[in-house]
Specification:
17% of the residues lie in helices and 29% in strands. A hairpin with a 4-residue loop joins strand 8 and strand 9. With 198 residues, it is of the alpha/beta class. The protein has a domain of 135 residues: Beta Polymerase, domain 2, CATH 3.30.460. It is globular.
């Protein structure tokens, strides 16, 4: 038995009245924004409540909104987005949680709610610098342990901070400052507001 989108929205509003910051439905997808404070009980409710049953977290990703909307974004800079699936109701839900501090983004780990979050949180930590408190093993997963910075942040230089090369005299790999002049070669694409809705 599946639940309709209207029923899902009603169920979310009934079960999470004080926790919902925003509810958005676009292109057949439902997105909710919840507060970072007290997020674990809310996500546990999304997983366990009879009318919701979002038992599977299929993805988790970090977001940097610092240049979102052509620089017109006024909210918090970093968010974590959870993609949830209810197998019982054949329903998907996107949950967005913003980190309170833009300089040191911290969110509670959901690995205790959905164990599949473990490596996804490590990826968001590595690429965006988002700290997940309570994570069982928070360390880099894609970049080198000596890597400087977080490459998916909007303020990370396109050419990076250091480059790696093999030095035949030392017979080993060495790191050195980047020798390439930084420049932006990718054109910025701005789409109309109703681009995908037609």
């Amino acid at each position: 038995m599946t639940i309709a989108k209207k029923t899902l929205l009603e169920e979310l509003r009934n079960q999470l009245p004080e926790h919902l910051v925003a509810v958005k439905q676009e292109l057949g997808e439902t997105t909710i924004v919840i507060k970072a404070e007290g997020m674990i009980p809310v996500l546990t409710l999304l997983r366990d409540a009879d009318g919701l049953n979002f038992s599977q977290m299929s993805d988790l990703c970090g977001m940097d909104y610092s240049e979102y909307g052509d620089g017109e974004w006024q909210g918090k800079r970093f968010a974590v987005v959870y993609h949830l699936l209810s197998l019982v109701h054949n329903q998907r839900l996107r949950v967005r949680i913003f980190a309170e501090d833009d300089d040191f983004p911290v969110v509670v780990s959901v690995a205790s709610v959905w164990p599949s979050a473990n490596w996804y949180e490590r990826e968001a930590f590595d690429l965006y610098g988002i700290i997940f408190t309570g994570h069982p093993d928070l360390r880099r997963i894609l970049t080198d342990y000596g890597f400087v910075g977080n490459p998916f942040r909007k303020d990370f230089p396109l050419s990076g901070h250091v480059e790696m090369r093999y030095d035949p005299e030392q017979q080993r790999v060495v790191y050195q400052p980047v020798t390439v002049e930084p420049r932006e070669v990718t054109p910025r694409i701005i789409r109309e507001a109703n681009y995908a809705s037609k």
